[in-house]
Amino acid sequence: MSIQPFTINVPQTILENLHDRLARTRWTDEVEGAGWDYGANLGYMKELANYWQHEYDWRKHEAALNNFAQFKAEVDGIGIHFIHERGKGPNPTPIILTHGWPDSFYRMHKIIPMLTDPARFGGDPADSFDVIVPSLPGFGFSDIPQQRITLDRTAELWARLMTDVLGYKRFGAAGGDFGSPITQLLALAHPESLVGIHVTDIGFYNLYNQQSDLSEAEQRFLGAQQGWFFREGAYAMLQATKPQTLAYGLHDSPVGLASWIVEKFRSWSDCNGDVEQRFSKDELLTNIMIYWVTGTIRSSMHYYSDMYAPKLQPGQHIEVPAGFASFPKDLPGVDLPRSLIERHLRVQHWTRMPRGGHFAALEEPALLAEDLRAFYRSLR
Q1: Which H or E run includes 19?
Q2: Active-site pick, 201, 358, 371, 376
């Protein structure tokens, strides 16, 4: 399991091909006055595509990403790309941060320096971390598995990456979206290796729907979640059942790919309907570019076929100390009762954030970084 240094260096031919495809976009029409009611708004997508074609500079962002120490290692036959930044405090705690969909390892780029070097941001050097940020298999610069890969299999890959490859005996783990169930499954399977876990969403959405002893607040949250899936969840069912069909269009058209992803960043963030209140065009496009230049939109959807499979049983409990940060605009936009997640997690740290949505590490990196420091401070 040798580790090789990794540098992002996208061939110029890929960038030229992208530029040509953007120039030849065949635009659809739109219902007059539709706004974002039926999906990605035509006017905004034309504005974004024009910026992408004429102003966006991938090489600048590629160079910025290459300022992070990046590596690739084969773990159980899968090449895993990861950032590994060492902490600058006296005794850094190792922590693995896991992203989800439709983001990438880029989700974590703002909080990495806040965790490795808290003193630079007004914090205590004693709160520093060694930060490991892998790309999920089938995402970004990790290998594309030739067979389906599951959430619990990924948790096993992370355990081996941290212990066998990087040599950490004990470590922390955190994440959101797919990063939440992966982090929790890692703690379930390897409690002896985990100092603690920290998540920003419940992760196991079907775990409690059939239970008869739910409180009124818990029922309200699960009802809101079910309502959200009726309104917004068609993408998940499509990605779970017919990802190959969807992939032809998204893999072939950069504007198609961008519209599929940007609409989620707008809908799932705390942006009041204006996606650029939270994410600049450059941030949106850099994340999209990671999918485009690696050709990984199809493989990034494979977890959806595993999302509805039971991973925990009612009554099953994860005993590793847990922290939870609840962001008000995270899905489904209703407060998550602490009692619900305490049904399967040993919650020792709970924070209701004043703002922020699903992409916490990108939207509110300072709030999330401070919450991670506060939680792990008691576990060091």
Answers
A1: helix 12-23
A2: 358
Cis peptide before 332 (omega within 30 of 0): yes
Does position 201 have pLDDT exceeding 70, yes or no?
yes
User: Is pLDDT above 80 for 371?
Assistant: yes
CATH number of the domain that residue 327 is part of: 3.40.50.1820
Mean pLDDT over residues 187-203, rounded? Answer: 97
pLDDT above 90 for 205: no
Is the pLDDT confidence value at 78 over 90? Answer: yes
Which of these is catalytic: 168, 304, 371, 376? 304
Q: Has residue 209 got a pLDDT over 80?
A: no
Confidence at residue 1, expressed as pLDDT on a 0 to 100 scale: 65
C-alpha distances (whole Å) from 298 to each of 138, 243, 274, 321 are: 8, 6, 28, 35
Query: DSSP characters for 208-239?
Result: STT-S---HHHHHHHHHHHHHHHHHTHHHHHH
pLDDT band at 125 (very low <50, low <70, confident <90, very high): very high
Q: Give how many domains the chain has, as a whole number.
A: 1
Quote the domain boundaries for residue 112: 3-377
**Which candidate in 117, 127, 143, 177 is catalytic?**
177
For the chain, the C-alpha Rg in angstroms (whole number) is 20
The answer to whether residue 106 is catalytic is: no
For residue 162, the tally of other CB atoms under 10 A from its CB is: 25
Is residue 88 predicted with pLDDT exceeding 80? yes
d(CA 265, CA 276): 10
Which residues have C-beta within 8 Å of that of residue 282, sequence separation ≥ 6? 56, 61
CA distance 251 to 68: 28
Give the DSSP H/E element, type plus range, for residue 312: none
Contact 180, 359 (CB under 8 A): no
Q: Helices 254-268 and 281-294 sit at what angle, rounded to 10 degrees?
A: 130
Q: What angle do CA 22, 101, 337 make, to 5 degrees?
A: 140
Q: Report, as an integer, the average pLDDT of 130-150.
A: 96
Q: Establish whether 81 is a catalytic residue.
A: no
248 is catalytic: no
Residue 130 pLDDT exceeds 70: yes
